[in-house]
Amino acid sequence: MSIKTFLxxxxxxxxxxxxxxxxxxSPSITEIVYALDKGSSLVGTSTYSxxxxxxxxxxxxxxxxxxxxxxxxxxxxxxxVGQDFNQGTLDxxxxxxxxxxxxxxxxxxxxxxxxxxxAKEINSNSNIKLIKEIDNEIKNASKNKxxxxxxxxxxxxxxxxxxxxxxxxxxxxxxxxxxxxxTNAYITTSTEQPVLSYENIIAxxxxxxxxxxxxxxxxxxxxxxxxxxxxxxxxxxxxxxxISIVDENYLHIPSHRVALTIKKLxxxxxxxxxxxx
Length: 277
What we know:
Blueprint (H helix, E strand, L loop, with lengths): L2 H13 L6 E3 L2 H9 L6 E3 L17 E2 L2 E2 L1 H6 L4 E5 L3 H8 L4 E5 L4 H14 L5 H13 L9 E6 L9 E2 L6 H8 L3 E2 L10 E2 L1 H7 L3 E6 L9 H9 L4 H4 L3 E5 L10 H14 L6
Parallel strand pairs: 1-2, 1-5, 5-6, 7-9, 7-11, 11-12
Antiparallel strand pairs: 3-4, 8-10
Helix pairs in contact: 5-6, 6-11, 7-11
């Protein structure tokens, strides 16, 4: 008997008596399922699903960009929830008659729609509270009295000679920049995650630079040395001392916790911005 045939039979055998069995293909989805009070129904997830702590005990079905089909089938899920970059995997699972849900979590509006979609699929009413929390932070986002250009950088490094990843367009970080009354310093293309060089940063010349850092995933970075490297780049941000590091483990995760990200970053853009001379 081939492995595919065995897993196919196993899936249908277990599915006869199993309750709801959810597999998440990304950390964001894992967080959303737990926030919808359905964490007990999760039977598998992707790597880097660290929140809440209970998620760290779940079986791993692979990297969130390249999950393992056989591991997924072995867990006999009733539904597999992934993001748009998981389309290939989700299409393969349909061959085994497994229900799939594909989400787009790029923007704040898409995150809200996705929370509602997952709640409907897994029969949860907790989405109302989660959406309300996001809407409250949108409404109360700190507005800057001196609108300026902001560049949000992914990750902290003390060597800026290699590729620098920043927040581009059509993504929730840009939504937050706009909610705060500011503009994205990156205006060149519609790329969500542009990769820039040292020279590109100088050309963009942002008024403020916010670097997203997580000590949990970047524990060996010399923060002082890294900050000095950024301050050495001739930009308005460095000249006016408008470069800051924000260390929170939720910032990169487009889940219901985007409410926390809105509050944190909108406040950062306002309270720490200094006018130039």
